[in-house]
Amino acid sequence: MTRNKWIAAAALGALLVAGQASAADKKVVAVSIPAADHGWTAGVVYHAQAAAKEINAAFPDVEVIVKTSPSATAQVSALEDLSAGRKLDALVILPQTSEELTMPVKAVKDSGAFITVVDRGLNDPAIQDLYVAGDNIAVGKNTAKFLVDKLGGKGNLVVLRGIPTVIDDERIKGFQDGIAGTDLKILDIQYANWNSDDAFKLMQDYLAKYPHIDAVWANDDDMLLGVLEAVKESGRTDIKFALGGNGMKDIVKKVIDGDAMTPVETPYPPSMIKTAIYMTVANLVGHAPVRGNVKLDAPLITKDNAAEFYFPDSPF
Amino acid sequence: MSAVIQSAPPRRERSFAIGWADAGPFIALAALLVIGFLINPDFLSATNLSNVITRSAFIAIIAVGATFVISSGGLDLSVGSMAAFITGVTIMFMNGMVPHLGTWSVPAGMAIALFAGIACGLLNGLIVTVGKIEPFIATLGTMGIFRALITYLSDGGTIPIDRSLREVYRPVYFGTVTGIPIPILISLAVAAIGSFILYKTKYGRKCAAVGANADVARYSGISIIKTRTIAYLIQGACVAIAAICYVPRLGAATPTTGVLWELQVITAVVIGGTALRGGKGHIWGTVAGAVILELIANLMVLSDFVSEYLVAAVQGVIIIIAMLIQRFSK
């Protein structure tokens, strides 16, 4: 009896060891991103999961694990959990905040993982092997250029900005630089918290305050939805353009459909997480060095190239 | 303007008994209108006032319910998330029913909204009364729950209403009857019913009694559990009515719908003259409070003095001044 037990235990032990060995053969890529709490992060989650599914199917020896976290503290814990059980070959992270995540990511780096940082940089750029981000200044600048061009360098603008953050400041700065030296005049600029309801109210107020507005720029598509509703309701015909930014599918669809008021869009695409995951995996399996900084441009999305930026199945 | 005109008669009728206390929020409202006009004459234009008062309807309707909850000695932090959750459920139900009911799915969806609102209110009420958990904590919990549910239902994105229903439903927010926007009429109706229940029925007096002193109320044979639970039910129904008016405005529910509405609602109730610690509720004051809040935000945009960075600070100062005007007009 006792001997049988020993044999069974030995067999079980052997199985466990073998199991671990085959798991260890797989290269593990952990992806840590914020939980979906608004449109853009929902898009990030969608694209991260899509990338994981595609890569896990395409490369049997790579395992991509996606973990979402609702807060910076939760993300720190998630990093500990991810790296506690097994050795990570790479970490792709979109940090909730730069300050709180810098040291925990460094700890993962010290364990030998390849670190890819997406969108929001860490306090110490030396930690990252690869940095992938969009270009917020270009979001503002390219929109401004379009307006300067279409309005003949003259006209009255109103602007809706989001929440006081670096992202918001950069977009506004890009826009202001873009119209500098022309006769385009920003009549008013106020915060609407990247929220459609707040943008609806603010746009109603702008319309009440200014009898003639040539174009509106909301530096995010959620706000643009509120703006469009307010303009439609007012029945005003002086507004020639209402533009947004970010690449929300509803707005890209408008561009595809040739909408007169919103004929173009600028992307700050949540799909950048997918780009980052693919590049990281390329480094692991393809022996393709990818170290460096990658800044995805924010080209004007027009009817011609809109299909590239249109993800009908994404929540964003 | 119409909200003020409409609400004047019940105030006058009550002012014989209560004196200046009820008039406070209306004095603040009148002062704000005058200041607004001096700053920018466009402020009193019919379009602007109609826009602003229509916008305040959601907060006003929810705040009528909150007047019951607060005057009965409770608090509800979950109203904003609840509004988002009900909006999401309603839109999904309407969209799902389109193949079967066609445009009739709009009234069917409204019924579902009311049902969902009452169910959410009942949940809050039972946790607070039967579960005997502090209202602040209980509704902080359900606030998180409702917010997570709408985020889950929408995958973090948006739940848009079916295009075929969009135009049918649109007039509920954008339509007018004899020139008055429908949301204003709905909020006046809700306030009228609310003030009838609070001032003219036995339940209303129980509500104030429980809020003023729960022990004394219990000794007089009033069921505290029943009274407070019904207050939360009324709150849930009010949130549902607000959600019904809200859906046609942007035609979508998102995880950011109704964020921080709970604070605006509580502020409206307190500006309206109802004490946070419970006791007597002031329904028409609450409505005035909701309009005041929206007018302040509107005035911030229409005036040119304030840097966009300081808007929130000035709003805070104005709210405090409005409260002080009330205090000294008593």
Question: Could you characterize what this model shows?
Answer:
Chain A is elongated. In chain A, helix 2 runs parallel beside helix 10 (272-285), helix 3 (72-85) packs parallel to helix 4 (98-110) and helix 5 runs parallel beside helix 6 (166-179). Chain A has 2 domains: 26-134 and 270-298, Rossmann fold (3-Layer(aba) Sandwich); 136-256, Response regulator (Rossmann fold, 3-Layer(aba) Sandwich). In chain A, the strands form 2 sheets. Chain A has a 6-stranded parallel beta sheet with strand order 2-1-3-4-5-10, sandwiched between helices. The termini of chain A are far apart. Chain A has helices at 2-25, 39-58, 72-85, 98-110, 136-150, 166-179, 196-209, 221-234, 249-256, 272-285; strands at 27-34, 62-69, 90-93, 114-118, 130-133, 154-161, 183-191, 215-218, 241-243, 292-295. Chain A is α/β, with parallel strands linked by helices. Chain B is mainly alpha-helical. Chain B has a single domain (2-329), classed as ABC transporter involved in vitamin B12 uptake, BtuC, CATH 1.10.3470. Chain B contains 16 helices and 4 strands. Chain B has a two-stranded antiparallel sheet. In chain B, helix 4 (57-71) runs parallel beside helix 10 and helix 14 (261-271) packs across helix 15. The model of chain B is unreliable at 1-18 (pLDDT under 50). Chain A binds chain B through residues 35-39, 41-43, 45-46, 161, 164, 188-191, 194-197, 200-202, 204-206, 208-209, 222, 225-226, 229, 233, 250, 314-316, and chain B through 40, 42, 45, 47-48, 51-52, 55, 151, 154-158, 160, 174, 249-252, 254-257, 259, 297-298, 301-302, 308-309, 311.
